[in-house]
Design goal:
By secondary structure, this protein is α/β, with parallel strands linked by helices. It has a four-stranded parallel sheet, sandwiched between helices. Helix 1 packs across helix 4. The longest helix is centred in the middle third of the chain and has 15 residues. The chain starts with a strand and ends in a 20-residue tail after the last helix. InterPro entries: Bacterial_PTS_sugar_comp, PTS_EIIA_man-typ, PTS_EIIA_man-typ_sf, PTS_IIA_man.
Amino acid sequence: MVGFVLTGHGDFSVGLDSSVKMIAGSQEEFDVVPFHEDEAGEFPQKLADAIAASAERNDGVIVFCDLMGGTPFNQAMMNTQLVPGVEVIAGTNLPMLLEVLATRTPESTTQELIDCAVEAGKQGVVHMVLTVDDEPDSDDLGL
C-alpha cells in the first residue's frame, strides 16, 4: 500500500483530516503532521519521523502539502532525498484527498495515485454561478 502524510500551515492538515473523517471515516496509513508556528523547531523532525515510519510500513509515501514553497513543502521535499519512495504534492484540497483515498487499494502504485490526486484536485476547483429564471415553467410545482 502507499502511505499518505498530510501536512500544512496551522491547522490546515487537522481541518482536512476532520473533514475526511466526517465524510469518509477513519483511513488507514493516513498520518497528519500540522505545522504550528510555536512548534517550528520540532516540525522538521516530526515530519521526518512520520514520513520514515510510513515508508517502513508501505511501498511508497505521498506527502500532501498545502502550499508549494512553504515550510511544510520544503521539509517534505528534503525528505525525498533522504527516504526512498517519497513523493510530494502541493496544493492539496478536500476533493483531491477524498478521491485518492477512495481510489487507493493495496495494489495501487504511487504514480497512479499521484495522477489521480492531481486530476481530482484540478477538477475540485470550480466557479459556479447560480442563475435565476424569471419565467416560471408550465410544469413548475412552485417548490
